[in-house]
Amino acid sequence: MKPTAARAGPLAIDRYLLPSEVHVVRLRQHPAFLIPPLAGTLGALLAAIAISAIREGNKSPQIIVWILTIFLLIRFVFTAAAWFVQYIVITEERLLLISGLKTRTVKMIPLPKLKEMTFERSLAGRIMKFGSFIIESGGQIQLTLGYIVYSEQLYLEICSTIFPQLAYNEDTERIDESPPVSGES
Amino acid sequence: MTGNGPADDSGHEGGLPPSRSWSGYGDMLDVTRRLSRSATIALLLSPVGILLIAVARLLIISDYNTVTATAIVSSGGYVATLLGTVIPLVPIILPYLALTLLFLNRVIPGMLTLLAAAFISPMAVTRPTALRLAEKDWHLIVNNNLVIIVVMIVLAVPFACLLLVELLGLGFNVFIKTIATVTCILLIPLVSRLYPFPLDRAFYADLMRQPSWLPAETVTLSSGQAFTGYVLSNGGNWIEVLKDDNRTIYYYRASDIATLAVCQMGQATLMQPLITLVPAKTHAPSHTQPCRASSAGRPSPYQPRTPALPANGHEPSALAALDHGPVQIAQPSGHRCEDARQRQQAYEVIKLVVKK
Asked: Which range of residues forms the domain containing residue B249?
């Protein structure tokens, strides 16, 4: 995950930013995002190979098993491709969620809305270095952003953007010394 | 469930309500979510959908004759007809519905459906045979070609690691969904042998055309003519029969019926589910005679004298008085068979019990 300078991102991302807008952070979700579909595909492939050993009776079940396995395989490929093109971009004013392989979707959340935000790290998140932001509004969960890389640093970055007075007082030093928060996974 | 991105749609740690996860591929490949939101499936599963299915099946049974369909409904009762048209289809589709739900990551509904299938769906083989089949399959898999075994081990190791990561880190929900998908695929060959999906078109044609809430019966008239039909009502002097071959309703005087014998239509066989809660004393099953498929199709030498009635749902006596109609009723012969009498007695007993 290399740090990215502002404005150095893909053209597709810059297309959604205003001329005066500079993105502070741009990142992809953690590759752990792909674990569930990959596990399902591997398991299905394993099962399909095992089932192919049963050479008795009707062949239709084996054909169905292979069709389903190929479906899972295709789904995994598309999921990986979709993961590759989706980005989380944070500017000084807003949070952009850019996604979609076929239909490009740009979801926008103004930063003041992130004041009601929960930051969580599961056991796997602590081991594999990712976390989740749960954005709430009026006590209701609005959106969960999972598999966020460098989530702790990003959390501080968002906090410093929302509460600049805190960032430039006692926390200034700590933020400045923190590792680069933006990067491509 | 923290950090579960696309998979995190089932709940949240700390008792919070389920949240909407941001995922970039939801528009294309999230089949489960699409299906769960499908208005068509919701309609099919709603009472309106079930009613539409029942009506469609009733029309097929009555050979698309709405008058006959109405007569069947009025004879059997609306609820009985509705349930009768839908319920017999349930045990057949249940195992496959369970597999579909498991594949679509609907784990709890899938498991419940699988359990229900074990209790109610009749198996094509006996329980010991099913166990032997599973053992034999396992033996075939384990004693496979060495190269295949190596490939399987190579796939199994990362799969086990990923499962462990899911279980320890991503949460039990994600883990169990992966297990459900793989289990579905593993179960397909076994289920297809225990509950063989009837690929024969004739099976479906028979199944859809039979009013399966009624037993098919071989009706033998006192004249000797025999045909296959379904007794819609047996209310005293008149017996209302839906003939199998031309799907027309006929009224017969009870005294004209020589015998009524339950027979077996199509390929249905006596099969038991995987789990039988109460032993049904099936050690010596009584074999039902197959129906006479062709007798009703042949032109009958029987020439009835009294006009009768394709009079669906009307008073038979009034219709019998009309001297027209393609089918006629037999004259009373003064002879009534034992079967018909026993059936009448049983019918009266049931009526009394229902009244009580």
From this structure: 214-272+287-355
